[in-house]
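Person: At home tonight, work slowly through the protein below, taking as long as you need, and write a paragraph about the fold.
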Amino acid sequence: MLQGFFNYDNPIWRFVGRLGDMILLNVLWILCSLPIVTIGASTTALYYCTLKIVRNEDDGDIKMFFKSFKLNFKQATIIWIPMLLLGMLLVFDFNFFGTALAGAGIARILLQGLTIAMIVIWIFVFTYVWPLLSRFDNTVKNTVTNAAYMSIRYLGSTLSMLISDVIVIAVGYVALYYMAWITAFMVLMGYPLLAWINSTMLDHIFEKYMPKTDPSKDKEVRPILQDLNLDGTLKEGSSSETERDLENLKNKDE
C-alpha cells in the first residue's frame, strides 16, 4: 500500500507535481513581467507551458518558458504595448465619462456603456491572443484578428473561461477572511493557475486548427522503404507483396 502511495505515477503525486509546476511558472512569469513592457512575452511563454502541460508534452518548465519567451518576444511586445495603451485609455474614458458627465444622464450611460463593450472586447482578445501566439506561427495582424474571431466564434468557451477565472479569484478573496491559507496557496500559484484552467478549454479549440496527418500513408510507405536499396532497386528476398506495392506507387506517380 505504501509502495503504491510513494509511486510518482500516483495521481496524488502527479497532482502535487502540477501544483509545483504552477508555483514555478508563477515565479518565472512575475520576474519576466517586472519590466511591464515584457508582460506580453512572459504571458505567451506561460501559455506555451500550460498548453504543453495540458497535453502532457511538458519537458521542463524553465526550459519551455524561456524557449517561448525568446522565440515570441518581438511579436508579443508589438502586440502588448498597443494593447496596454488601449486598455489604459479605455479605463480613463470610463472614469472620465462618469465624472465629466455625472449630470448628463442618458449621455453618460451610453458613453460608459460603449466603453464597457470595448473593454469586454479587449478582455476577449487578451484571453486568446497570447495562447494563439504561443501555439501558431502567424503575423501580428493575423494573430490579433484570429484572437478576436475565435473569442466570438467560441463565445461559450470564452465565457466559461472568464467565469472560471472570476470564480477562482472570488474563492481566493472570500477565503482570505475565513481560511487564509487557501488564499496564500492560490497566490503562490498566481496567474498560471488561471492560464492552466483556460488552457484545458483552449486546447480543444486549437486542436481543430492543427494540420491533419494521414498515418495510414506512413504505414504503407515505411515497409517498402525498408526493402529498397539506395539506388531504388528491391533488396534480395523482398516479398512479392512489397514488389506489388512499389509498382502501385509508381503507377500513382505516373
User: Anything to note?
Assistant: The mean pLDDT is 82. The longest helix spans residues 106-135.
